[in-house]
Automatic annotation (TrEMBL), chains A, B:
Keywords: DNA-binding, Transcription, Transcription regulation. It comes from Streptomyces xanthii. Residues 16-110 form the HTH arsR-type domain. One of its GO terms (molecular function) is DNA-binding transcription factor activity. Pfam families: HTH_20. Signal peptide: none annotated. The keyword Nucleotide-binding does not apply. This is Helix-turn-helix transcriptional regulator. CDD domains: HTH_ARSR. InterPro entries: ArsR-like_HTH, HTH_ArsR_DNA-bd_dom, HTH_MetalResp_TranReg, WH-like_DNA-bd_sf, WH_DNA-bd_sf.
Length: 119, 119
């Protein structure tokens, strides 16, 4: 998905940092929460854009919305409106250009930890 | 450096998580601060234990102490007393066993970002 330009859909668009605005510290912070890390793992496994409701998160809708917003504002995911739903996709291309290997090593580490802790 | 056992030096020892207690989320959070990321980069470049005063940080001593404590409690660094000074070393061995490639990919990403932003 393209990222720098605003997405026009029903007149609404969500703010995304352009690739060159993405900061490593922000990406690491976005990934440092267990719920957000779980969201990103699921997104990476799906390899396609998913609506927020596709994620079975044990939190309220407003908390869920917050987590998706943190991921979007850090440049980890792209969110676009499709009707009343938001579709979410990883910004893998942008992240891989800026920080080669980082996302994969975090996903690998998260998988190892989940295996180790039996989660 | 060994990590799980407390370090006896003048009767004082600092608490460290054992390797199996280190959590990915905590490591990412510890690395998500620009100052702490700079400390870790300097430590990785030094490849030897450094005293806190070896780092020229533009912050007060109490803020500096806070950042080192966050890194220690997350399992990213080991701190041992040598007289009145603390020596700091990366827990590279533990991190590489738990999360292979993660620390190197973060260090590489931090270096690329610093080059890109001219820092």
């Amino acid at each position: 998905m393209s990222t720098a330009a605003p997405q026009a859909a029903g007149g609404r668009a969500l703010a995304h940092p352009a690739r060159e605005e993405i900061r490593l510290e922000g990406v690491l912070h976005a990934l440092s929460d267990p719920m957000r890390l779980a969201i990103v793992r699921e997104m990476a496994a799906a390899e396609t854009a998913l609506s927020c409701s596709a994620f079975a998160l044990p939190v309220t809708k407003s908390t869920s919305t917050h987590h998706f917003r943190v991921l979007r504002e850090a440049g980890v995911i792209e969110q676009v409106y499709r009707g009343t739903a938001k579709l979410n996709g990883l910004r893998r291309g942008d992240l891989d250009v800026l920080f080669p290997g980082l996302l994969d090593s975090v996903l690998d580490a998260a998988g190892r930890q989940a295996d180790r802790l039996g989660e």
